[in-house]
Structures are given as structure tokens and as C-alpha cells.
Amino acid sequence: MPLRSPRRRAADRFECEDEGVPSSQRVVVVGAGIIGLCSAEALVRRGAAVTVIDRGGATRDGASFGNAGLIVPSHVVPLAAPGVLGQGLRWMAQRDSPFFVQPRLDLELVRWGWRFMRSATPRHVELAGPVLRDLHLASRALHLEVAARLPGAPPVEERGVMILCASLAALRDEEVTAERARTLGLRAEVLDAAGVRARMPGLTLDVAGGVHYLDDAHASPRSLMVALQAYLVGAGVEFRWGRVVTGLERSAGRVSGVRLEGEVVTASTVVIAAGVASSALGSDVGARLPMQPGRGYSVTAVDPPERPAMPALLAEARVAVTPLAEGVRLGGTMEITHVDRPVDHARVRGITRSVERYLPAFRSDDLATLPVWTGARPVSPDGMPYLGRLERLDGVVVATGHGMMGFSLGPVTGAIVADLVLDGTSQVAGAASPLLRPERFAGRGRA
Ligand SMILES: Cc1cc2nc3c(=O)[nH]c(=O)nc-3n(C[C@H](O)[C@H](O)[C@H](O)COP(=O)(O)OP(=O)(O)OC[C@H]3O[C@@H](n4cnc5c(N)ncnc54)[C@H](O)[C@@H]3O)c2cc1C
Question: For residue 432, how many other CB atoms are within 10 A of its CB?
Fold first, then answer.
């Protein structure tokens, strides 16, 4: 049961016509993941009356809870980049690899793959870089503000992220990415093995070198979700738990609310922040938001043999190792598959084995006994979020498709959503980029 507070009463009357709340401020947010909660927080702080609807419960455990908690201005290269496809195909043959597409006869998957291929160009990477940098840096600043403002919010640790390379070949590849990041004004230092050891004291390492991204940071995603939810309940936001939004209601040529089973909740603006399920809600109003679930796994060693001084990303293995208050979290894998497919233990084993390869004190056999968490990233075919108003229909703001960056980009997404709902436009750097337009795939098969 969600907590109630005296201030909740204003939101309880949300559907009434005579509350004196300006119509532009009656907002329904679909989805209580990091994107939905950050949007609700930014909206309610600016005076909007907000209802958040989620098909899960108040103690749900989706993608926004067990992720690696990295805040990553260094992620200036979108998932759709040259070379990714070839690497992905090589990984497909490996049973415990970090990437897998479940082969199936699904037209949506075929279209998504086609668009991914069309997007993975040097030009796309060049255009996306500054947009991602601006959004991540703004979000990092907002993460710090949220941590300072919200009771119970976890601290944001500003120690950067270390990319660890087992081989010199990987280090050379990472040097190219580091150079790109530096050109965009980010701090990235390439280190040999001794240099990495000096920055990660007390950690047994078997690496050729690494890159330290000093602008990156991290925080506990679960603690942040809990703190955000508690704040929102206290601030009068109405939560409808265990309710599935089945479609968007229209009247007078605009969206006027959402449909639940047996009920309509009215709103002047609906924010679609339903993660992977956002595509279905988009199609209900004719908006094409192609997306595939990118399922990943994490395990958390509550009693780790060692504690890294900062998070590490294992370059060849694509695994994140994050020191959190609740333990050291090891997360990775991108499975393009059904969200409810059973856990693939071979791939979880791939994560734990690769951790042992870089950090030999972490024994794969010990890690393999830990409970496995799984979550599905909402992955767009060009690796960029869908963030903006629908152009063809008033009353809808879309905020989804953040893929591997939803935790990092949560606060800035929330701020942009609030701007779009309340002002119609956002001054946040990068917010107006055409690369974020929700309807960019509206043309038939066009990337
Ligand atoms: C292993 C792993 C590690 C990761 N590490 C990082 C990281 O270090 N940094 C980072 O930035 N990101 C990371 N991510 C990605 C990040 O977790 C996601 O991008 C983010 O959680 C997506 O948030 P969301 O709010 O869009 O979606 P979700 O968290 O999936 O929330 C969507 C919500 O909508 C609800 N919903 C869906 N459909 C309906 C409906 N019809 N009606 C009502 N409710 C509905 C769902 O129940 C859900 O609660 C990682 C992901 C994984 C899997």
C-alpha cells in the first residue's frame, strides 16, 4: 500500500474539473521507473498536480532498481555505432557472451535491426556526441542537487569510472574513445597497468591498462528510487499501483487522459515513461516508437573479497563493477529477447567469469551462488532516447528509450519533461536536438 499524506488530498481531487489547477498542470505519468519518478519530481516541484500509474507494485523491482548506478558523461558514443554490429554477430556464436539476439520471426525485430544498421554510421556518432555530453553533464549536476535535496537519497560518489582493459588491443581501442571524449571537453586519462593500480589501491588486478573518466560518478539506483518515491508521496503525488494503462484517451483532437481497465483518468498532458512498453502506448495514438527490450543481469556481492575505489567497466567483457553501500554490484549482458524469458544462467556465468579474469580476488564460483537480478533496458534502434512532445497529437510527452543510460539521464529527462509540459519548450542544452524527436522513425522504415 502506498503511504498517504495530508497533502495527497489535492492530488486525490485531480480528476475534478473545478480545482483551480491550471489545465496545463494536470499530468498523468505512465510508468514509475527512474524516468517516470524523475519526471514526476520535476513536475511536482514546479507546482503541477501529478498522478503516476504503474502496473507494478509500490515495491516493484524493474530495470531502474538493480542496474549498475553509473552516471556517465563518458558515454558519448550511442549504442548504434560502426563496428557494433560485427562485434554483436561474433558474440552471437558464444554461449556466455555479453550480447545475444533471440532469433525469432518478428517483423518489429527485423525493422528494429534494419534501423539499427542504418543508424550505425560515423556521422550518427559525430552528431550524437555533443547531445549526449550535454544531457549527461546536466543530469550529473541534477543528480548532485537531488542527492543534496531529497531526504534519504544516496550520495553521488564523484570518483569517476575506470575502464579496465585486459589486453593492449582493447586499450588501443579505448584510447580512441578517450580521445573522442577529450575533444568533447571531457576528462579522460589513459593509464598503464601501474597507473590503474595506483588509482585503485587494495584491488587485485590483472589488466594491461585502463582509462579513467573523471567526470563520471555513481550512486545506488535502488536507494534513489526509494527516496524519490517517498518524496513524491509526501509531496502529494497520487500513485496508482498495480494498474495497467491500456491506451490513451482522445477528445477534441488531442489526448485527454489514459484508459485503465474499467476507468479513464483525465489529464491535460500524458507523459509516456513506460520503458520497453512505451512502444505499445505510442502505437495506440499512431506514434511509432520502435524499441526492443535489452535484458541484462546483475548480482550484488554483499560481502565482497575486495572493494574497488571506484566503479570499473571491463572493456572486452562489457561488465560493470560498482561499489555500492549494499555491496559490490556486477552487471552486464544485452539480450534482445522477451522480457519474461527465464534467466539464462550461462550468460550470468559469463559475467562472473569475466570479473574473475580482471579481478582475480572475485571467484566466479562464489559469485555464481548470488541471487540474480534481471531488468530490461528500453533500447531504441539508434541508441538515442525518445524525448519530446508528439508533434502530430497534442497532450503527449514521450520520455523513454534511454537504453543503457536511463539512470544517468533520469534527472535531466525529468527536468526536460517538466519544461515541455509546463512551458511547451525546454532550454536545457541538447533538449531540442532532432536526434531525440519521438517521431523520428515515423516514415516507413526510415532511419
Ligand atoms: C544490467 C543493467 C545495468 C544497467 N546499468 C546502468 C547504469 O549503470 N547507468 C545507467 O544510466 N543505466 C543503466 N542501465 C539502464 C537503466 O536501468 C534503464 O535505462 C532505466 O532503468 C530505464 O528506466 P525507465 O524508467 O525508462 O523504464 P523502467 O524502469 O522499465 O520503468 C518503466 C515502468 O513502466 C511501467 N509500465 C510499463 N507499461 C505500463 C503500462 N501499460 N501501464 C502502467 N505501467 C506500465 C513498468 O511497470 C515500469 O515500472 C542498466 C540496465 C541494466 C539491465
Answer: 14
